[in-house]
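Hi again,

Forgot to attach this to my earlier email, sorry! This is the prediction with NAP bound. I've pasted everything inline since the attachment limit keeps bouncing my files.
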Amino acid sequence: MKKHSLNFGDAWEYAPAPDSTPVVIAKSYGLFIDGAFVSPQSRKTMPTINPATEEVLSKIAVASAADVDKAVASAKKALPKWKRLPAKERGKYLFRIARRLQERAREFAILETMDGGKPIKESRDVDIPEAAKHFFYHAGWADKLDYAFPGREAKPVGVCAQIIPWNFPLLMAAWKIAPALACGNTVVLKPAETTSLTALRLAEIFQEVGLPDGVVNIVTGAGETGAALASHKGVDKVAFTGSTGVGKLLAEMTAGSGKRLSLELGGKSPNIIFEDASIDQAVEGIITGIYFNQGHVCCAGSRLFVQESVLEEVTTKLAIRMQSLRMGDPLDKNTDVGAINSAGQLKTIQGYIQCGKKEGALLHQPNHRKVPKKGFWCRPAWFEGVQPSHTIAREEIFGPVLAVMSFRTPEEALKRANNTPYGLAAGIWTDKGSKAFEMASQIKAGVIWCNTYNRFDAASPFGGFKESGFGREGGRQGLSAYLELV
Ligand code: NAP
Ligand code: MG
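Structure tokens for the complex follow:
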């Protein structure tokens, strides 16, 4: 194993350029039920913090089972009128939401970065525009469902319980809410405990555009709030994005209840570099694949397979590229690597890094930049000398930790790529179209990128195989999750 000791020092530093647009954050937020912000019956609140500074941003209501009951009742009450509304009118609401999101994009981007720790250039260029796109895309579908499913009658499922994680807080809310509303359902959304602020601000947009009361309700809180929502008798469908562990619990909870269920779960996706690939381009793809959003990405390319003949070149270039990543203030537009979302997640990631070292893999972390004193930070990391049996090659880390392995033949790459209980995504880097198609047809994953990574589009269905879940979000396939087709 080679020691990558290239050090480019601090020769290339930019002056700080933080986005200083003021964003007003209330001292506390209630639950959004029946079109209004209300205090929780539980009277309980929890702080939401900025993971880059550990500063408390606001206090968020913790919904109890009684609060969840109120939210479900509100969604149920709103359902008959909402589903009878001419589809074109439903579409207009979605168009209005999309436009308001675009108009308020900067404020949302800053808030997302403050509450979640991701670099502003990601929330500004990916999270918020993609969320707006989801509303636009589904606005267009609202009055065309008969064309999407010719010969069938498309009816809404009813009240949808939607539970989302913290890695793309607003985007996940948009992925869930937009298709549900386009199809004539009503919603109770449960954001993740550490990142509720942008979903609550989206509720302000619902008020601004005059979305009928009760069509979307938002209950904040922890896991118990999610469990109370998913198990509520008034719910017709549960849509969940999060860990495979909680997904399994929900599958048990909803079994035999008649509730529809869709699950978007974890991943351990392979990113495969063949010797005929454009190596410089592939190295950029590795960086995007695993260090985007600090690796807090369900489809992160966390298992890198490099053809043996180019392993040395790829790892040398990777080591150089990693030295140029800027870690620091997420509000600074030059920042590449932001803060880890929570103290708990940081501990989990650090545990995996220790485990990788203990099991005999060689750790590399660029070390020339200072780690901020406050907040939750993890230097981007990659491991060489990883064996398929190593924990870091098998388990989802959900952090900026890459396991680098090599292969000799396409058959071997394929076998090793599929050797996982997950099947969310994969990347293939090659100059040969036929090789890309051959591999793509045999890798068991919901999304396969060729010569790119981590690209999303509202029209393209996203979802997993095996323990990565079932059901699709986005595209025509995503609509069917919110419809009874008769
Ligand atoms: P998580 O712990 O499963 O939490 C997801 C959501 O479920 C949160 O809102 C959480 O609330 C809630 N929850 C927790 N326990 C629950 C229970 N017993 N019943 C009902 N709801 C419950 O996952 P996470 O740590 O937030 O997110 C990371 C995971 O999400 C990773 O595994 C990642 O791969 C996966 N993910 C998948 C996709 C995809 O599209 N496939 C996309 C993004 C993320 P609290 O926040 O209050 O705990
Ligand atoms: Mg937070």
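The pocket of NAP (ligand 1) is lined by residues 163-167, 190, 192-193, 222-223, 226-227, 230, 241-243, 246, 249, 264-267, 298, 396, 398, 424, 464, 469 (CB under 6 Å). The chain has two domains: 28-265+468-485, 267-450.

That should be everything now.

G.
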